[in-house]
Specification:
The chain is mainly β and 374 residues long. It is 9% helix and 39% strand. It has three domains: 88 residues, Immunoglobulins (Immunoglobulin-like); 78 residues, Sandwich (Immunoglobulin-like); 158 residues, Jelly Rolls (Sandwich). The strands form seven sheets. Strands 19, 20, 21, 23, 26 and 28 form a six-stranded antiparallel β-sheet that branches. This is IPT/TIG domain-containing protein.
Length: 374
């Protein structure tokens, strides 16, 4: 019985080997010179496309596409282990790799030869928005720069850099949309461009470090608004750009407590610096400021006003807690300016505490400004 079983087993193995051998031989003999007849998207294989974006799925259609040895888009090698290959179609994802040489071609090599087809790949730009938490962070602070495609441009600790007004800082960590770095010492005074660079390119921030475009309230100096007693150069919290507004008092329920306020005719008003387009098209702009809540703003109500008068445009700012750190607050301008009107002489502006509940306030404000959206 053992001899018969061994003989059957041996015969079966030989039969399978023969079948595989014939199959491979037939496969190879059936693959002639490859031809690409169409490149399509994975969603619509019936329509040819001339180009695509990195990360898109495409289908290379044709015949004799078997026995693939290599596949390149521009000079970037496609990982064949991640592609689905048949003799008539190859489905793949355009690699997220910036080419060194751009040919706008697919190059396919099989055992039967090499064939090319046109494909223009769009390379997305390296986008830099600015600092994530505090756009006025002090030198020495660890910060996060937000953007997109940092991985694509190889912004790495080994090859990447962040420059603040031309002063370089190292990349501590990076991902697709974030770069962690430390604000360097010696940055020139005034707004400083944030430039992030990698192996394959660089990008400049939409919002520069210490952005002071259309700065409305900086407290440097106080220019005449109501509430001058709140302006201080104190060290608790630490100043981020000179004087700031510090509200440290108990505010009673429905007490009328104006911290900043004034019409456009207040001496020195900087509200005339707001671009006319911002008041005509407030949906395209942001109202920003830095805040530090040493105690949470968790009761009462802060009302922000900017517009023609003290009633037309008011925003109720939700309760907020920065946990004792300076943080940048960004509000769509159209949520404040509800009646767009242009006045070259400036506008009424106010930060007002007026709401339900007693608040043990200990919070600071600085750098109130209006800037374009990215």
């Amino acid at each position: 019985m053992k001899i018969i079983y061994s003989s059957i087993k041996f015969s079966f193995v030989m039969l399978i080997s023969a079948v595989l051998s014939v199959s491979c031989s037939d496969d190879e003999s059936g693959c002639g010179t490859p031809e690409i007849t169409r490149v399509s998207t994975a969603q619509n294989r019936a329509e040819a496309v001339a180009g695509g974006n990195m990360g898109d799925f495409i289908i290379i259609q044709g015949h004799d596409l078997c026995g693939v040895q290599s596949l390149r888009i521009n000079d970037v090698e496609v990982d064949l282990r991640q592609a689905f290959l048949t003799a008539t179609e190859i489905t793949l994802q355009i690699p997220r790799v910036v080419p060194k040489e751009v040919s706008n071609q697919i190059t396919l090599t099989t055992g039967g030869g090499t064939v090319t087809a046109s494909l223009e790949v769009s390379v997305p730009p390296l986008i830099v928005y600015g600092l994530a938490a505090n756009e006025y962070a002090l030198p020495g602070e660890v910060v996060v720069v937000k953007g997109a495609n940092f991985d694509l441009y190889a912004v790495t600790p080994e090859a990447g850099k962040v420059r603040f007004g031309g002063v370089s800082a190292d990349v501590i960590y990076s991902s697709y949309d974030s770069v962690v770095t430390v604000v360097p010492e010696g940055i020139p005074d005034g707004p400083a461009d944030i430039v992030v660079s990698g192996t394959y390119g660089e990008g400049t921030a939409v919002f520069p470090y210490r952005d002071n475009r259309a700065l409305l309230i900086s407290s440097d100096p106080w220019w005449g608004w109501w509430g001058s007693d709140y302006v201080t150069a104190g060290d608790t919290p630490p100043a981020i750009s000179g004087n700031y507004i510090h509200v440290k008092r108990e505010i009673g329920s429905w007490a009328w407590t104006e911290v900043v306020g004034g019409p456009n005719n207040v001496d020195g008003s900087t509200t005339k610096n707001i671009p006319a387009d911002a008041m005509q098209n407030p949906a395209n702009y942001l109202f920003k400021f830095e805040v530090n809540t040493l105690k949470p703003y968790n009761s009462n109500q802060i009302k922000l006003t900017l517009g023609e008068d003290n009633d037309a445009s008011t925003y109720l700012w939700p309760h907020y807690d920065s946990h004792g750190e300076w943080r940048t607050v960004s509000i769509p301008l159209n949520e404040i300016v509800k009646d767009p009107k242009v006045n070259p002489d400036g506008y009424f502006i106010r930060i007002l505490f007026h709401g339900d509940g007693t608040l043990d306030a200990d919070m600071a404000f600085d750098n109130v400004r209006v800037v374009p959206k990215p």
